[in-house]
Amino acid sequence: MDLGLKDKVAVITGSSKGIGKETAALLTEEGAKVILVARNEEGLQEAVQTIKEKTGQTLSYVAADVTKEEDAKKIIAHAVETYGRLDILINNAGSAFAENFENVELSDWQNDLNLKLFGWLHMIHAALPELKKQGGAILNLTAVAGKTPPANSSPTSVSRAAGLALTNTLSKDLAPYNIRVNAVCIGLIRSGQIEKRWQQEAPEKSWEEYARDPKFNIPLGRIGDTREAANVISFLVSDAASYVTGTAVNIDGGSGAAL
């Protein structure tokens, strides 16, 4: 299937590693022009080099902090100056701080909301003037905890839920401009954090053995791969999903308790 991504210009935050990096590689393979964004410039340079070796294409990057409004503006300005337009914004920057409510300081709430919610807002505000010129797609990465928060998941599950509400609201507000807004809710996907957990809990097991441990209670029987997440994300921002907006798709192997 032709996803219609050739020559589309995409900005991906949090893309020096993990799902963001894999999505950048896949969009590049599909012919998109991708700008990687993260705070760590060395990590960005390594990601750009890895993707170049894989695809033969040279990518652009911006070292920036999306919690700062001026940095968000700098990112979008770079995209337009480099490629002349913007078609896709993927908000992937984020972290997971989860604790019992009584143990969470007010500063923890502020830091989490600054990155997950206000980071999205800064990027969307900066991107809108360009996206409104020809339409486009915004994709927000959140977690299944945003739909069904477990115990001891403050503040991350609360900020994730706020992001889902923002996604749905924006899908209505921006539809007249042909700007689609969707989200994906990530479950257990192989990442540096999961691999560290594997080495701490069961270093004697292979990754395949660990990923299929029944304790994870995943109906599909295994932890997912970053490529599997990137496949869904790439579809949602592509022309192939031109009639999809305002939805939040679980990428969790069936473990989510809510649609």
From TrEMBL:
It comes from the Bacteria. This is Diacetyl reductase [(S)-acetoin forming]. Keywords: Oxidoreductase. It catalyses: (S)-acetoin + NAD(+) = diacetyl + NADH + H(+). GO terms for biological process: bile acid metabolic process. Catalyzes the irreversible reduction of 2,3-butanediol to (S)-acetoin in the presence of NADH. Belongs to the short-chain dehydrogenases/reductases (SDR) family. Its EC number is 1.1.1.304. The keyword Oxidoreductase applies. GO terms for molecular function: diacetyl reductase ((S)-acetoin forming) (NAD+) activity.
